[in-house]
Amino acid sequence: MITAIVFVEADVARIPEVAEQITNLDGVSEVYSVTGGIDLIVMIRVRSIDDVASVVADQLNKVPGVLGTETHIAFRAYSSHDLEAAFSLGVN
Fold it and tell me: What's the pTM value of the predicted model, to 2 decimals?
């Protein structure tokens, strides 16, 4: 499974509609409206890099109101359980 995190710059007047359309794309698991220099963070979970390209280039970038994207591929995932173990001092 490939996880991609896509930062989306959107037309500010259309953020709710853009987010809703992106949510309905195959391969998109979550869409977050966020503060800062980007408007939306999109989580994509698919089987291959080619599928990431298909979702981002062929679908997401064509949603009306999407002005730009920046895609990051995750190569390792850490759960909160793993982080607790990594920072444990051995005290119970």
Answer: 0.84
